[in-house]
Amino acid sequence: MLVLGSLPGEESLRRSQYYAHPRNLFWPILAALFAAPIPERYEERLQLAARNRIALWDVVGIGAGMALADATIRLHEPNAIDRLLDEHPAICGLAFNGGTALRLFDRHFARRPDLAYLALPSTSPAHARLGFSEKLARWQPLRDLVGAG
């Protein structure tokens, strides 16, 4: 399963790590979905994702006007998601971490009938309308699609 964000935030860019902001709920949600402790080290976090057949990327490869919120993304160039899917046919679906990732994907790519698509609430601290428990419940279909790992 490929989990797609819109594009990395400032802290993620600074650290060269996906979901690096300390209040981003992605890693706590992923750990809870698979009944694992939240790994401290980034390498262990990536191993948790890989062990559960989850890959990470962003819809946008290059963007401008993206300072703090996905809503500010104006000029952008998408990543080569079609090529990635062609080169990795074992990817069974795409999960979108937030509505902006989904909208940007749909703007640039056609959906493939052989893939599952999951629209999930953003784990970003900028999207705090839902609490951890609500987000975790809405992310459950990701676990269901990839299995228990």
Describe this structure as you would to a colleague.
- The protein is α/β, with parallel strands linked by helices and 149 residues long.
- It has a single domain (2-146), classed as Uracil-DNA glycosylase-like domain (Uracil-DNA Glycosylase, subunit E).
- The chain has helices spanning 10-15, 26-33, 42-51, 81-87, 99-108, 132-146, and strands at 2-5, 55-58, 60-64, 75-78, 93-97, 116-120.
- The strands form two sheets. Strands 2-1-5-6 form a four-stranded parallel β-sheet. A two-stranded antiparallel ribbon has the order 3-4.
- β5 (93-97), α5 and β6 (116-120) form a beta-alpha-beta unit.
Quaternary form: single chain
Spatial separation of the terminal alpha carbons: 12 Å
The CATH topology name reads: Uracil-DNA Glycosylase, subunit E
Portion in strands? 15-25%
**Rg from Cα:** 14 Å
Q: Overall mean pLDDT score? A: 89
Contiguous low-pLDDT stretches (5 residues minimum) are 64-70
- Give the CATH class: Alpha Beta
Q: What is the N-to-C succession of helices and strands?
A: EHHHEEEHEHEH
Which range best describes the helical content: under 10%, 10-25%, 25-40%, 40-55%, 55-70% or over 70%? 25-40%
Largest sheet: 4 strands, parallel
Shape verdict = globular
Structural class: alpha/beta
Short account of what is shown:
The chain is of the alpha/beta class and 149 residues long. The chain is built from six helices and six strands; from the N terminus they run βαααβββαβαβα. The model is unreliable at 64-70 (pLDDT under 50).
List its traits.
149 residues, Uracil-DNA Glycosylase, subunit E, alpha/beta, 38% helix
